[in-house]
Amino acid sequence: MTDMKRLTADLGSAQQEIHSSRAHSTKAEQELSAARGQIEQLRAGAIADSKRWQEQDQSRQQTISLLVSEKASLIASVQRLEEVEIELQDKEKLYLAEQARAAHLNNKVQELEITTERQGNELEETLSREKELLERVRDQESRA
Question: Cα–Cα distance between 33 and 8 in angstroms, integer?
Fold first, then answer.
């Protein structure tokens, strides 16, 4: 019975850890999505800037300065995206490990449920046999 309580507690703990891992994974996915949105906004801004620079025919030095600045911003955004992707991969590995642990615990719970059911059936059979024997003893005592 204590094993069942311990396994139930372990299962609950594993489920909490899985929930936590899923929350972290969801947060990482949201950050990744936001970073991709920022990159798309930056790319759209770079295209718009490029068109505007061509239309205005500004001096080449100003154009180069703006492009260098935009490039640095894009590189920083790409680096952040790479960091978020690495973090997401780490959290996905953790999630998969927790999922495997939960599956293992579920298997243990199922095994214990089967064992409990089997032992319950054996107990019922034993009680039934005991009842039959008591009835036989009573019958014999009443005949004697």
Answer: 37
Task: Report how far residue 59's alpha carbon sits from residue 99's, in angstroms, rounded to the nearest whole number.
Answer: 59
Candidates 27, 28, 33, 22; CA nearest to 99 is 22
In order along its 144 residues, the chain shows pLDDT tens digits of 687 878 787 778 888 888 888 888 889 889 989 999 999 999 999 889 888 767 776 677 777 888 899 999 999 999 999 999 999 999 999 999 999 999 999 999 999 999 999 999 999 999 999 999 889 988 888 886
Residue 11 near residue 105, CB atoms below 8 Å: yes
What is the 3-state secondary structure of 107-129?
HHHHHHHHHHHHHHHHHHHHHHH
